[in-house]
Amino acid sequence: MTPISIEQIPGTVTTATDAAVNMMPLGEYIFKRLEQVHNVRSVFGVPGDFQLSLLEHIYKTKLNWVGGCNELNSGYAADGYSRYTRSLGVLITTYGVGELSAINAVSGAFAEYSKILHIVGMPSTKVMTDEQLKKQHIHHLVPDLDSLKDSNHLVYADMVDKVCCAKKIIMNQDQILDDLDDLILQIFKTSRPGYLFLPVDLSDELVNAERLHSQSLEHIHKSFLEIKDSEEDRHITELANKVLEQVYNAKNPVILADVLADRYANGQELLQEFINKTNLHHYVTFMGKSLVSEYHPKFVGDYQGSLLSNPGIHENFVSSDLVLYVGPYINEMNTGKYTAEFKENTIILHADYLKIGQTIYRDAHFIKLLAKMNSIMDQTRVPINPLLQFPITKKFANIPSTAKINQSTLLSKLEAFIQPNDVLVCETGSVMFGLPDIKFPTGMRYIAQGFYLSIGMALPASVGVGCAMRDLGSSQRLILLEGDGSAQMTIQEISAFEHLKIKPIIFLLNNNGYTVERIIKGEHQSYNDVKPWNWLNCFKFFNVQEDSVRTAKIVEVTELTKALNSIETRSVTEGTLEFYEIILDQLDVPWRFHAMNSNRLLPKMD
Amino acid sequence: MTPISIEQIPGTVTTATDAAVNMMPLGEYIFKRLEQVHNVRSVFGVPGDFQLSLLEHIYKTKLNWVGGCNELNSGYAADGYSRYTRSLGVLITTYGVGELSAINAVSGAFAEYSKILHIVGMPSTKVMTDEQLKKQHIHHLVPDLDSLKDSNHLVYADMVDKVCCAKKIIMNQDQILDDLDDLILQIFKTSRPGYLFLPVDLSDELVNAERLHSQSLEHIHKSFLEIKDSEEDRHITELANKVLEQVYNAKNPVILADVLADRYANGQELLQEFINKTNLHHYVTFMGKSLVSEYHPKFVGDYQGSLLSNPGIHENFVSSDLVLYVGPYINEMNTGKYTAEFKENTIILHADYLKIGQTIYRDAHFIKLLAKMNSIMDQTRVPINPLLQFPITKKFANIPSTAKINQSTLLSKLEAFIQPNDVLVCETGSVMFGLPDIKFPTGMRYIAQGFYLSIGMALPASVGVGCAMRDLGSSQRLILLEGDGSAQMTIQEISAFEHLKIKPIIFLLNNNGYTVERIIKGEHQSYNDVKPWNWLNCFKFFNVQEDSVRTAKIVEVTELTKALNSIETRSVTEGTLEFYEIILDQLDVPWRFHAMNSNRLLPKMD
């Protein structure tokens, strides 16, 4: 192909020739840039008139467009995609009506260290800058409270500062080159959502796409996790040695594995390697569930403070003389309502800092430290833990239930059903608080919103997870544990599975309303009721072919056993979508939820 | 009933006796106060752990709790309730996950002058003020980007400043007394949403409820619209005369009726009275549709500038030598993309100001001016309009359609179908832009989001409208014009009709995706597709009794005629829910939408 000769046009300079070859529309450039990012294959959102000009360019790439029924659902799907891929979940919405509908999903992603890149279509740069035009009140935009004042086109962009790591408002095409790369880097560094606000007229403007070739983004997700020079290497080595020396000198050091280890590149592998090399007793937090192999001989259990741990767990944990807390997220839900005890002997290995005693070291990412410790560790000096002092039992209590299946039975059956490498997405609801009582097989992925707890998230998130599994060629099963009240929030997105040829195994736990709320207040009040739907008819409405779905309503334990036995091992795209409505008692919740509810907040940490 | 004698308790003072009798829990007080507000009978929302303690108190009042499937839907329903009742639409959500899910509905209400009172449950005052506790990251709350910083419990409250008229963060129980009344007053004064942030522990605290008896809120919705003293009376009379003198001295004065006249107390009646008394030619805007009787002999038509008005309308409008623009909302959609011409001879009667020529008078609410003008007008001095100079025709164009029913036919049939006093809720979508071409019968109410244009709003809004109609004992029919793409956003709320015993007549216009977007860009692109659902199966899923719903899929014109003829005159709570899926061509839109799309924004106003 011969490039158009710019030299023939009077007034142009010869040096422009190379650049001209690489000129492409900004919209195309954005998608091509995203295509370079590790594990980004699908993009989520809902079209709107302020970003159609952007969407148009996606067809020039291999990226899949996954249209959602609404923007909140698309936001949740992008979050699910990000959690599974440990990379960007790209979300595209339109000005005002779209971006605001999705803001709860973005806020949840922020609260849970999930990497959504939210691209929002905006009015044209001309509308925002022309002295006459910018006075106009254009659709989707709230005018000022005072009707005599001009519109502020950034009114929505101003809302997101506390739920994103960074935002970029693009006002000319050349700005995109640095801003997009920087935004993506910030998202990976903080593992938090970032915003790109893009005026509608810019998508067709030409930009110099030369860096697509000269500076690939292939390694951006881990670039900042690599030690950059010998000075940093000395610094990290020194800190790694400081931590290791404490390990060598302790009598009974233990490791607590938490969710941030899941959020950075190969954090999970580095952590498992560290565990294997030290062979120390280790625990996992509520949000860290599935992060480490629960079949490792030194895995002790799920640590959720004195309040929510199984008997013996807390006692053993606090009897240790050194805790290495890796990838921590210290919050109410993750610490047994702050009853987890972290004494002076705790070393915190965070993405933002390393804390040893009362000393905080910035610029010491736990990924760098883990990698360094794995490489320099003297295994002979790592102490062997004494035997566990306190016996560990399980409070797998039988809670009274008027239904034939109670949650304790359900959890036992689930424990037997799940297989190595299954992916389990769990809705916010009572059953979530029973999962620390069951043992996950090795290689499992567990995805849930354990802290932000926005009900309705899991179903659309599982669409995103399913997309990600399909995109990456997973041979795993996708299982969704869903509640009736939460499913009512976002049910329409269940129709996406058929459309995307994803075949999850869905258990809808029907306990006749908001059971979690009933336990807190209003056991039998109407505000905790939901409308009774005929769940099994859902697929006829959503136009799922009869031969591609299996459904059953399950009331008896024998029916549950039979159903579980009938579900085959297969990949996320094979077989049929399975949907089981399981009838539970409306006041049946795991013991842990009762414990959590009966205890007021106790300040234990500082 | 003998009040408990406080005098018997040592240390109390006698003056406390009266107050003690009136002490009641803050939660109960809030609902009893709301109960006093004109037309407030139902309250919308979704329960959450931060407001269950509030909800508990609703059962001590006659207010209905209307639980939504999700918070966005409840927000839309509250908006619909407010539009129909011209009073508060009360929305209750929980911290973070709930309030953010609803923020797009609130933003839409702000953009369209709808009166949502949004009550948000928050963490307890102790959690927010105790030096130790406030460091904790509690569930539903996004921590700071820097993991070493404390939580900011007001992070969500900070987001709403530009989408509300006022917000009150209640930090002790006594504050509620003035703050609630003031907030409600602000909402009515601005006809905009207001926020009440309520910590979970305060609902059970006792407050002195004495003002429930001594200062009723019965008239709060119009209190500020009454002339308060002789000085104000002189001021308003002077301004009213100023306006009237201009009318008397004009040759061809006309009235343009707009949506704000619908938003304040008896604004519509005052406007119709003003029209009747002056007997001047008058027009209605896009958003003002149904505000004035279209069967009045001097009603000229729907004015949407030179771009979107039917032929002759704009020409007649601009030939006038004086325009009285009442209750104006000057925005892109309402002015034919700013092609409406308002010259020097325009008098603007707004809620915030009166504008005569270039002079702006604050403190001259159009309601006060209309009432005054109606009372002091010398009808003999009002000129009689000359005959209309330009013939008015209708561009009821037959747009090419591959479907057997096209939108032009549909609009004609609808025009014949709708009856006086029907309530029509219309979804944002192509058909909305055809409605200015049909004549509405007298007494009809038209409810649509003509400026903010958030698709998915109309269905849940019609639930709120239906509640309001039921609450106020309406004998009217409720009709919903819905689209397929928009219905997918919020479909679950359709199950509320059965639950609430509301029987709307629903026309689902199925044009196979986002037709409005297809016209703008991507006619056949996949991003404008939606998933194909079997709409008629929806009620089996949502558990609507077979004998309480009639459904049909309509492809042929004869089927449409037959269906429309079979629908009886009845009230909103009588008969069956009717649901007709009407198949349209995916590129068939009213001429007005093509005109709007082909024209760029033109700055015409200043």
Automatic annotation (TrEMBL), chains A, B:
<feature type="domain" description="Thiamine pyrophosphate enzyme central">
    <location>
        <begin position="241"/>
        <end position="363"/>
    </location>
</feature>
<keyword id="KW-0786">Thiamine pyrophosphate</keyword>
<dbReference type="GO" id="GO:0030976">
    <property type="term" value="F:thiamine pyrophosphate binding"/>
</dbReference>
<dbReference type="InterPro" id="IPR012001">
    <property type="entry name" value="Thiamin_PyroP_enz_TPP-bd_dom"/>
</dbReference>
<feature type="domain" description="Thiamine pyrophosphate enzyme N-terminal TPP-binding">
    <location>
        <begin position="25"/>
        <end position="129"/>
    </location>
</feature>
<keyword id="KW-0456">Lyase</keyword>
<feature type="domain" description="Thiamine pyrophosphate enzyme TPP-binding">
    <location>
        <begin position="439"/>
        <end position="523"/>
    </location>
</feature>
<dbReference type="GO" id="GO:0005829">
    <property type="term" value="C:cytosol"/>
</dbReference>
<comment type="similarity">
    <text>Belongs to the TPP enzyme family.</text>
</comment>
<dbReference type="GO" id="GO:0005634">
    <property type="term" value="C:nucleus"/>
</dbReference>
<protein>
    <recommendedName>
        <fullName>Pyruvate decarboxylase</fullName>
    </recommendedName>
</protein>
<dbReference type="Pfam" id="PF00205">
    <property type="entry name" value="TPP_enzyme_M"/>
</dbReference>
<dbReference type="InterPro" id="IPR011766">
    <property type="entry name" value="TPP_enzyme_TPP-bd"/>
</dbReference>
<feature type="binding site">
    <location>
        <position position="484"/>
    </location>
    <ligand>
        <name>Mg(2+)</name>
    </ligand>
</feature>
<dbReference type="InterPro" id="IPR012110">
    <property type="entry name" value="PDC/IPDC-like"/>
</dbReference>
<dbReference type="InterPro" id="IPR029061">
    <property type="entry name" value="THDP-binding"/>
</dbReference>
<dbReference type="GO" id="GO:0000287">
    <property type="term" value="F:magnesium ion binding"/>
</dbReference>
<dbReference type="InterPro" id="IPR047214">
    <property type="entry name" value="TPP_PDC_IPDC"/>
</dbReference>
<dbReference type="InterPro" id="IPR029035">
    <property type="entry name" value="DHS-like_NAD/FAD-binding_dom"/>
</dbReference>
<dbReference type="GO" id="GO:0004737">
    <property type="term" value="F:pyruvate decarboxylase activity"/>
</dbReference>
<dbReference type="InterPro" id="IPR047213">
    <property type="entry name" value="TPP_PYR_PDC_IPDC-like"/>
</dbReference>
<dbReference type="InterPro" id="IPR012000">
    <property type="entry name" value="Thiamin_PyroP_enz_cen_dom"/>
</dbReference>
<feature type="binding site">
    <location>
        <position position="513"/>
    </location>
    <ligand>
        <name>Mg(2+)</name>
    </ligand>
</feature>
<keyword id="KW-0460">Magnesium</keyword>
<keyword id="KW-0479">Metal-binding</keyword>
<dbReference type="Pfam" id="PF02776">
    <property type="entry name" value="TPP_enzyme_N"/>
</dbReference>
<keyword id="KW-0210">Decarboxylase</keyword>
<dbReference type="Pfam" id="PF02775">
    <property type="entry name" value="TPP_enzyme_C"/>
</dbReference>
<feature type="binding site">
    <location>
        <position position="511"/>
    </location>
    <ligand>
        <name>Mg(2+)</name>
    </ligand>
</feature>
<dbReference type="GO" id="GO:0000949">
    <property type="term" value="P:aromatic amino acid family catabolic process to alcohol via Ehrlich pathway"/>
</dbReference>
